[in-house]
Amino acid sequence: MKSRIFFIVFLLLTVVYKPFSQEGAHGHDSHAAFDPGATALHHISDANVYSILDFIRIPLPVILKSDAGWDIFSSSRFSVGAHEDGTQAYNGYVMHHGSVYRVNDHGFPMNGQARIDGFSTKVEKVNGKDKDIHYVLYQARSYRLDARSTLDGGILGGGITSFMDFSPTKNVISMILVSLLLFWLFRKAAVAYKNNPDRAPKGVQGVLEPLVIFIRDDVAVPFLGKNYKKYFPFLLSLFFFILGLNLFGQIPFLGGSNITGSLTVTMVLAIIVFIVVNINGNKHYWSHIFWMPGVPIPIRILLAAVEVMGLFIKPLTLTLRLAGNISAGHIAVLSFIGLIFIFGKSGESLAGSTVGTFLSVPLTMFMMTIELIVAFVQAFVFTILAASYIGAAIEEVDHDHVESIHH
Amino acid sequence: MLFTLVTFTPFQPTPGLAIWSLVIFLLFWFIVGKFAFRPIMEALEKREVDIQDAMDAAKNTRAEMANMKAENEKLLAEAREERSKILQEARDMKNQIIAEAKDKAKEEANHLINSAKVDIENQKKVAFAEVKNEVGAMALTIAEKVIRKELKGNAEQENFVNNLVKEINLN
Predict the structure, then answer these.
(1) Domain segments of chain A: what residues?
(2) Chain A contacts of B27, Cβ < 8 Å?
(3) Which pTM was predicted?
(4) In chain A, what residues touch B47 (CB-CB under 8 Å)?
């Protein structure tokens, strides 16, 4: 039985990742050979189309804003093909590797559809930094493309460009799906508790109850004390939202959404935690940040600087830790699968592919198991840190204790 | 050209995804928090309180049962003691009544005996008196007869009679 399952997984992995092997033969200028880095990056990036198994493509709505105004249409307008590359341009927008780009070049038809012939990528120096610049091939001429605007101010290779993308992307759709699924599960459990309050938990209740009690007894109560009830739904929301998204991203062949590995999502969650913490911060909390009691004044000034930095470093670490862990897991899994194509010389050598597969499958399975643990651990860590920050902000002053420190 | 990774797009924060995830998480927090987490939280809490109450009640009942048993035993012992006391009293009373009855009977008997003695004494006295009278009369008669036959002088006779009478009286 075990060996049969192993064999099926083996077959599926070989079949499903077959399209990788065409990467080299697709006519990319700089990607003549299989590039595991770019492939992994493509697979963990957000997309404006929802691809399952790289051949079922569900078009998503596209909402774009540029100098020319708003453009709202379905991504099926791009006639998305292999590698989530569009074969049509629409209103000056094209789709490359699942993302929308805007032609920022004269001479390209900026209204209606236009048949395009492919893409190329060059690494160019922009403001002294290396940057991937994509070009679209249209009627035997390359046109420079603008990526969508990002909020990193150029630090992470993005910046404000000629358009903004407000589309409900693959990540957004995944988030909505996971939210609805979680709502359905928890509502079912809540109704079961309401209808049979005196019966032992059954079914979905039995699965969720230990987790809920775990968050209550090991996260909420130790950090928040007896006032935990006010913040408990927030902590549960954080934990299950992150856990649900982590696990959803782990499901193979279902789009492999890298939602919690996306810095934007974790940043938003961390900002919400930051707001919840600082809205509820009491006098004691703020006094310990700006005017630490019980130390000499020069040290107070120094500590204030450190504490104010800490105020912002806390959500920053929350953001980076979660996104980094989940993205790293996805990259590791994709890299191990990429071994098949590296050994197989991008599909030229069947023997190489076989060796690569025998190497890749156990490693991938091992990695995916680790990732399941990481999914739980990271959701737990995010929640427990949020609870500890809230706990520090609402901590009541023990006057006797403070007095004894002062003297 | 392996690993030509310049722009790491997942780590570029995009305004669109930020707005969507903000809205989705806030809705999730609000809706699931209100309609699922809060009821579950309350149900769990209520159940724990109920379990604690039930356990406390069981403990109390057990203690009460033990108390009642002790009390029952105490009552039983008391009842037993009471019974033996009553029995003892009854026995004492019986003995007392018997003793009293005996005393009374003895007294009555003595009384009867005494009155009988007095009666006897009286009867004796009467009998003696009668005998005396009878003897006196007989003596007189005898004396008369004796006198008629033998006596001559009165004085000697009278003395003699008086002496006789005195002798009789002295008896």
Answers:
(1) 57-168, 173-406
(2) 179
(3) 0.76
(4) 197-198
